[in-house]
């Protein structure tokens, strides 16, 4: 019996060592990303956000607000400022802000009016409140320009990442209501209609043309590739979609990825663009505190996988050496709700 016990102990120790070796091998095979981006949109400051601790666990290099940071819907500047201040009191967000760089853009509800565009009366004042919340210095050029668009450059030992943040509100032309179907809006072929406005378009072209980054992420608060649902989307301005695709292609910029929000759903869209050597991905992540839980389907010819209608946030792991991006729709407690890998 004594000999049997010695044999059993030996087997257990051998198995433990073998398992340890296997785990080490698996861990070694898992590549550590060179740069981690976390982003999300549609956040009500008065509602619980379960994700701030999870986001920190991902150890992101940057957090990008995709718009609707707060739900203000007001032309009262003091009220707008007070609602932003409420978000600043959220403990989990404060911890994130103290540990991770935070950048981003606005959408309609933090801009100040649902589905709002260029005709919003206090857009200039709203811009300053937004920049205050984002802690943009008073002497920044962004304080004197029209619109909240900006670019941010990051460098790691393996390479460079550029994040281009667009403003799809300040200059956007009027939407056309669709009275002939159950959709809210319909596309316009008016060549003067715009999403970005002349100055921002020129700026975007310069940013992409002059970029030597290994990955170029474009944050658009509204979806770019999903354009059939009839809500807000670049698809309501098809000539602008064509212009964006041509701008990306002609620039020669590497690894262009589109991020978007707004819709209270999360999904991956992917399209082959003529002249572009890699597929264009639009990663929609929305929303953080509330979602389209009654979602029952909508067309999107570019969709990859399924729509996630649960609350979620987005993670992009960038591997510069392998020229690969891993996109993950994340739920609470580190749950991966859906993922997509793309080579560039």
UniProtKB/TrEMBL annotation:
Transmembrane segments: none annotated. Residues 50-291 form the PhoD-like phosphatase metallophosphatase domain. It comes from the Bacteria. InterPro entries: Metallo-depent_PP-like (IPR029052), PhoD-like_MPP (IPR018946), PhoD-like_sf (IPR038607). PROSITE patterns: PROKAR_LIPOPROTEIN (PS51257). This is Alkaline phosphatase D family protein. It comes from Flagellimonas okinawensis.
């Amino acid at each position: 019996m004594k000999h049997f016990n010695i044999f059993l102990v030996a087997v257990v120790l051998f198995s433990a060592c073998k398992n340890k070796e296997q785990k080490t091998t698996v861990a070694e095979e898992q590549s550590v990303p060179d740069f981690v981006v976390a982003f999300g949109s549609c956040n009500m400051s008065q509602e619980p956000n379960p994700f701030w601790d999870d986001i920190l666990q991902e150890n992101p290099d940057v957090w990008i607000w995709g718009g609707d940071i707060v739900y203000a819907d007001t032309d009262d500047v003091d009220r707008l400022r007070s609602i932003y201040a409420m978000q600043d009191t959220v403990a989990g967000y404060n911890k994130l802000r103290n540990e991770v760089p935070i950048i981003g853009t606005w959408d309609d509800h933090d801009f100040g009016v649902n589905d709002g565009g260029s005709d919003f009366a206090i857009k200039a004042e709203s811009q300053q409140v937004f920049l205050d919340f984002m802690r943009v210095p008073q002497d920044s050029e962004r304080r004197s320009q029209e619109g909240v668009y900006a670019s941010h450059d990051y460098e790691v030992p393996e390479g460079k990442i550029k994040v281009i943040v667009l403003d799809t509100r300040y200059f956007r032309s009027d939407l056309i209501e669709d009275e002939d179907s159950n959709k809210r809006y319909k596309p316009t072929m008016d060549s003067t209609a715009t999403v970005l406005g002349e100055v921002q378009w020129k700026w975007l072209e310069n940013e992409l043309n002059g970029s030597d980054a290994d990955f170029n992420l474009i944050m658009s608060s509204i979806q770019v590739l999903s354009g059939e649902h009839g809500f807000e989307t670049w698809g309501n301005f098809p000539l602008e979609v064509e212009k964006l695709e041509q701008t990306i292609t002609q620039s020669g910029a590497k690894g262009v990825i589109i991020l978007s929000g707004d819709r209270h759903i999360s999904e991956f869209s992917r399209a082959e663009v003529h002249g572009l050597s890699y597929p264009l991905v639009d990663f929609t992540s929305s929303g953080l505190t509330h979602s389209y839980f009654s979602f029952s389907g909508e067309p999107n010819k570019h969709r990859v996988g399924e729509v996630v209608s649960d609350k979620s946030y987005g993670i992009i792991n960038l591997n510069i050496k392998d020229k690969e991006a891993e996109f993950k729709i994340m739920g609470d407690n580190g749950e991966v709700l859906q993922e997509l890998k793309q080579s560039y």
